[in-house]
Protein 1
Amino acid sequence: MTVHPVPAEWARRAYVDAAGQAEKYRRSLEEPEAFWREETARIDWIRPWTQLGRCSFDEADFGIEWFADGTLNVSANCLDRHLAEHGETTAIIWEGDDPSQQRRITYRELHEDVCRFANVLKGLGAKKGDRITLYLPMIPEAAVAMLACARIGAIHSVVFGGFSPEALAGRIQDCDSRLVITADGGMRGGKLVPLKANVDAAVAHCPSVEAVLVVRHAGNAVTMQGGRDRWWQDERAAVSPDCQPEEMGAEDPLFILYTSGSTGKPKGVLHTSGGYLTWAAMTHHYVFDYRPGDIYWCAADIGWVTGHSYVVYGPLANGATVVMFEGVPNYPDHSRFWQIVDRHQVNIFYGAPTALRALMREGDEWVKRTSRSSLRLLGSVGEPINPEAWEWYWRVVGDGRCPIVDTWWQTETGGAMITPLPGATDLKPGSASLPFFGVAPQLVDAEGTVLPDEPGVAAEGNLCITRSWPGQMRTVYGDHERFFQTYFSTYKGKYFTGDGCRRDEDGYYWITGRVDDVINVSGHRMGTAEIESALVAHAKVAEAAVVGFPHDIKGQGIYAYVTTNAEVEPDEALRRELVQWVRTEIGPIATPDAIHFAPALPKTRSGKIMRRILRKIAEGDVSSLGDTSTLADPSVVDTLIATRAG
Ligand code: WT7
């Protein structure tokens, strides 16, 4: 197997080399008090913390708290403290979907906008602890709105702009938002996303919403409801540019972000202030080896946790210059990413394997016609990167010069957990490599028996984390019991990630994918139960079962088995109708790739659907279906094989 050793120059000048990594890792676990005292010094505290943490994953005294008696304000950390020396430094370089559109915003300008935005929110009655839902395109105002919430102590809940009005409404209702922030529209690949119209449709079912603040961006026509809707640009002029940041406890909530799990309803993952910001800033510093003056671009949308931690909070806390891109990788053509790299002289690029695979398919020429000489480091996130895509990223995009950091983490973890450090870790394509400081991974088998962790001995099992880390989520919003049940009840005393994982002889971790009913489609996490409940909500559908199957570009595709009601004759028209139905119920990211009309689903005698068999058939691997003798009616399987979709 190929190993790409740390380039000598990186080992020499990076923040940490291999020896430094090992030593810091040891200290993080053996001398946590001293270690975190140093690392939290990268944050400005209003009142310094004296209590490190009180963390237990056991049911009896379950709880997670870090730096609990410290106080701070997250927006002041991302803005105010940079003003004295770096006020004129560019904070955000924005590039629109249309390549002729660019904006540059300094830290001073960003600070003023955030203060004004915060004052507008206050004027609308928002206060500490309120939940505010954001449904925005990738524009600087998205960061402004997030930081304005943080400034006044309101909790933001960002909903990805690709979600449908139905999905948006569910998320507004779950956290009882009184305020929604949106834009007239967003642009993606030359097409308008009618955000305001979607909000109108959603809010019709949300009695809690009193006001909608609208950013004028795409210029499309929208209906403004008197008494409820206001333009940000009008309000902006009418408020003061000064706004004192609210003093927040380290454990006060910063944001909620909804994510799919193995049950139908998305969970509101809640992150707090002190520990989260420390983790976001610290991982951004070490993983990307961020230096003042670097131009840094994370291509994720702010609707996902990657956008929270690595477009907004981590980099801005570190005073970085961040590129923010509204569009998509293939518009106007397949060179777009690399044109942006050249135009803004990007040094660090962080993106998703799915985009790389899609671009790889179009051929090297689109990449090669750009210079990319400014690039120094590349990152990957969101799903396993297959070694072929890794090597292409390395050889074609990075010209064989740029280390690749393949970062494994989750919405729940707040920031990178298993990741190479560019000056320290020899790279194995496809492996997220080693645990970050403070992270204690453990592999267990299905029964929870810990697999031996010894040098030279490989193991494969379910990935758990045995100790808390500052960036860890604190609860499921409104349902603390569900938090415990979901993550800490499968294996007693451990956080269970839901991922399968192999550790090789050198101690490198290789994530093998989800072991629960969650699938990863183009780096987006989807609960199969969520898609199933959307399907069965259709009047003609009696039953549905959704599984993932390997997909060349998306990583995993969505394969839906559907049993229609008795009087319905399934046909092509119904297939199209159901695909459209799921798009409207959840959003385009949940579009099924295949719908397989099935007269019946394979079930055990107790009525449980045998998903293992459904996965095999969807994968087209019917040679090893395993034991089907426990099925109530084994002939169902033959029918499914004979009628496989796609
Ligand atoms: C799931 C989390 C990481 C933030 C964005 C996605 C998968 C994530 C990797 C990686 C292999 C990865 C896991 C994880 N995943 N990064 N580098 N290698 N798998 O956050 O939506 O919460 O999804 O994404 O399966 O559990 P998310």
Note: The radius of gyration is 24 Å.
Protein 2
Amino acid sequence: MVLNELGQKISQALSMIQNAESIDEKVLDACLKEIVTALLQADVNVRLVGKLRDNVKTRANNADKGAGLNKRKIIEKAVVDELSSMLSSGVDEKKLVDLKKGQPNVIMFVGLQGAGKTTTCTKYGAYYKKKGFKPALVCADTFRAGAFDQLKQNATKMQIPFYGSYTETDPAVIAAKGVEEFKKANHDLIIVDTSGRHKQEDSLFEEMRQVSVMTKPDLIIFVMDGSIGQAAEDQAKAFKDTVEVGAVILTKMDGHAKGGGALSAVAATKSPIVFIGTGEHMDEFERFEPNAFVGRLLG
Ligand code: GDP
């Protein structure tokens, strides 16, 4: 995964600080320049990168004023803290992943068309099925012809019950009926797939809002193509402004994704990345642990 490459580059930059005989402005600037370059190359939003740079500098300069403080450690910690706050969002992602069995967890998926939502819904269901949950899938995508068939096909393959309609045109009605039916049947994980559009349009957001009102999800997951780069922040923000996005799943991390868009999306939604998709197959899906990722930066 390319996010790891970013991690390696940042570690290397930090080693400049660790290896320098004394830490002056020049060393700090050289180190920060490498970090900034690595983040920009990874498609992290320019504004966020600038903010990280300024904050680390401020903390390093403040360290000059304090006597006896280890400047190396302060800089190192500042970089890690800044990355953590970008990536970890302040939310404990484990709480969002460790669903409680035996109660109906309703999880709604949102995202642009082509992001990988429908595929990810089934991967997500299959992941929890392996853990002993009783998942079910609801197709509330009435916009894209074939969406229900695609979900049906995936669900059948993974032996997960599904609900949808070829005739009902109101996605909020389908979603509500599906959730109700599966709650009655004692499913403890009810996954609601919603429509995407190519662009962020008002109608998409209104529909999403209605589905959310009707199904009262416990968690809304924003599915984002991991390779979208600089556009990630705006896109993520637009979704977050409409519904209560609580977590992010990045797809296509097997392809050309540089991962930096992810950092920007997390910063925009203040929601952690919980899983990543690493291929088209149902088992190409893994947990992502933001704290572990940042922790590894320091080796
Ligand atoms: P939706 O429009 O958001 O529901 O997207 P789909 O689930 O239909 O996925 C769009 C395309 O992306 C399909 O061809 C999927 O097979 C593919 N896809 C989804 N997730 C991944 C992934 O993690 N890696 C790769 N390589 N392809 C993926």
Note: The chain has a mean pLDDT of 88.
Protein 3
Amino acid sequence: PKDQGWVLSYLYQYQGFWHPIRQLQGVLSCQRHFQARDTDIILITSPKCGTTWLKALAYAVINRKTNPPRGDNHPLLSFNPHKSVPFLELKVYVDHQVPDLTELPSPRLFSTHLPVESLPLSIKETGCKVVYLARDPKDAFISLWHFANKLRPQNSCKLQLEEAFDKFCKGVSLYGPFWDHVLSYWKCSLEKSNNVFFLKYEELKVQPKLCLKKLAEFWERPFSLEEENNGVVDEILSLCSFDNLSNLEVNKVGKLSSGEQNNAFFRKGEVGNWANYFTQEMTEKI
Ligand code: A3P
């Protein structure tokens, strides 16, 4: 209902989580039709936890033989990472389409914001490799607040920080409750450690090389000694770095087919930016 404010008027609660209402059809369709394979790689995040970065890294690691990271024609130089690794519920299953994904070569790379509770059964039942990227909720919230304001029509009023924070703490945010999303995947990663890799944005920032090597092993694409000595790991990190991706022409001006501007996915790319916005009370509350 309109009188419940901006956030509620665009979100719909389904299986305990708040989904963008316009994308609910995609969720239902994905749940009904997606058939995971053992070789699939699924990247899972709550929005604004580093999805774009993880997509770029995964794409660069998996395709490094055909697309060496130092090449001038690398696809990540001309396509936003969201094009290289599509969201199941937002991109693959839209407008009542049931695409044939069987011809795609393995490993297929997909992503999703769906909570564990709403994942297509086949993802849980096959041996596909899930990476869950989590982030400090304070940074994720500030990033989400900026993102929401960026996507609002130019003539509409700004979503106030206090209002957004209050809703976030009540669990009303994109794919929220945030903590339920994270904790379910955390538990899953303990139960199914061979198939679910739980990673934090902050770890990736501090030890990118170590994390990338672990990810590549998890995806069964470990870096050889020769590759390491030739600097392939560093090249991938540099290709996918915030500075590089955010300064590419495609990410400055382009748009996704769903309408979001590519530059909406790049802001600061830092740990701890929340401290410029949070009061003491907010910090304690969150
Ligand atoms: P900030 O708003 O805090 O800067 P998502 O990709 O899940 O939408 O998350 C977006 C957040 O990740 C934004 O955070 C964005 O700046 C940051 N980000 C995008 N690309 C990144 C990269 N290559 N390295 C580090 N952070 C990145």
Note: The CA atoms of residues 1 and 268 lie 34 Å apart.
